[in-house]
Amino acid sequence: MTEPLQGDIGVIGLAVMGQNLILNMADHGFHVVAFNRTVSKVDDFLQTAAKGTSVSGAHSVEELSAQLKRPRRIMLMVKAGEPVDQTIEHLLPHLESGDVIIDGGNSHFTDTERRLRTLSNKGILYVGAGVSGGEEGARHGPSIMPGGSPEAWPHIKDIFQSIAAKAPDGQPCCEWVGSGGAGHYVKMVHNGIEYGDMQLIAETYHLLREAVGLSNEDMAAAFAEWNQGELDSYLIQITADILAYRDTDGQSLIDKILDAAGQKGTGKWTVQSAAELGQPVSLITEAVFARSLSALKSDRAKAARVLKGPANSDSHPTGEAIGHALYAAKIVSYAQGYMLMAAASREYGWDLNYGAIAQMWRGGCIIRSRFLGDIKSAFDKNPELTNLLLDPFFADAIDSRQLDWRDVVSSAIANGLPVPAMSSALTFYDGYRSERLPANLIQAQRDYFGAHTYERVDKPRGEFFHTNWTGRGGDTSSGSYNA
Predict the structure, then answer these.
(1) In this predicted structure, what is the pLDDT of residue 480?
(2) Residue 165, helix vs strand vs coil
(3) What is the value of pTM for the model shown?
(4) Using CA atoms in the order 455, 457, 458, 463, what is the torsion angle rounded to 10 degrees?
(5) Is the Cβ–Cβ distance between 160 and 45 less than 8 Å?
(6) What positions carry a catalytic annotation?
(7) What pLDDT, in 10s, does the model give residues 405-444?
């Protein structure tokens, strides 16, 4: 008599995220079968972190698939790109119609779309699940953003919502996002907003240090105090911890860390998608480029000895004003992220639930904050809300802080302190609230040199005109290229 199949889900990939997700699943009563391409890692895991748990191991994908209940559920926690495709190819001979493959890595959403199309033709259900929260979140409750084959959701819902973080109201930070690559797209935008948040906080730290003259200890106290109020968030919390941390010699560790930021690509993907969809996510773009500029450390060191900034300015913002500017700019960061998701939802037919996305981000993930409860409330009140800035709560929040925001940005410029994210957020806000922009001149220029045509304010939208500006051009308008 053969033993009954025991595995509720298989997980491939035993780096720290994979191991912690497995232990999280085991804690919630699920029998997990673990596999890794380097099979010695399986035995090491079972003899160390997973010792005494219900986790079992497999030494081949064939053995893995043989241990799983039908339909099989297999989660990939491997490096994005070619390793995902290779793992899928190895799995396919051992799967059958109706089985579910879940990619829990940071895959590009277009790769998820491609894999879904290929696998659906073979009868395999495919899910691209964004997982946020780092190794701590994976172990104790991440934010999970699944999308792909809708038929797969009933098979994985119980597992994912059990292991996900819980919002303050007890709701799981995991819900079905949408079809296709929607899950990985939402995770990509999450990471883009994360870039923006981190850059805004870094600029705030720089202003408090250079313009206000606070010590690391005083800044740590300021961030800790902010974390008790409207700026309450994971990133503000860890910033307070970082600024208070001392190295083994008793000195502040933050002062010893090289000012050259790394990046893994998700922020760049967000900016690229925004450009393709024509969405002005200027703050996230500046955050990405700020990291690129920081990486030019040797060039900046040379430039610092040659290029001069302004003389000392009498303009010095208060710490309270800087906190207000941070909050206002943060609203713009999320507003731009939601604009981008709305454009993608229209373009790809995903029908994203924006309130549910805010719910998924309220716990477990890197950008979790009190702020997201306000975003969820905004979309609960008005599911057709076209921009967060138009919600009364956020409109009033910015209005009551914008003088401080403007003073802080002006003071930073006067003192020669770079605030690319905070200033671009303000410029976006002013542009978005302007009924008339100088783009009419750009259209005239385009028509002048390229006969690209223009619309008129005294004619219906969609009616285009061309002017022979010099009298030497023709009357034929351009229909073949844009500039």
Answers:
(1) 45
(2) coil
(3) 0.92
(4) 20
(5) no
(6) 187, 194
(7) 999 999 999 999 999 999 999 999 999 999 999 999 999 9
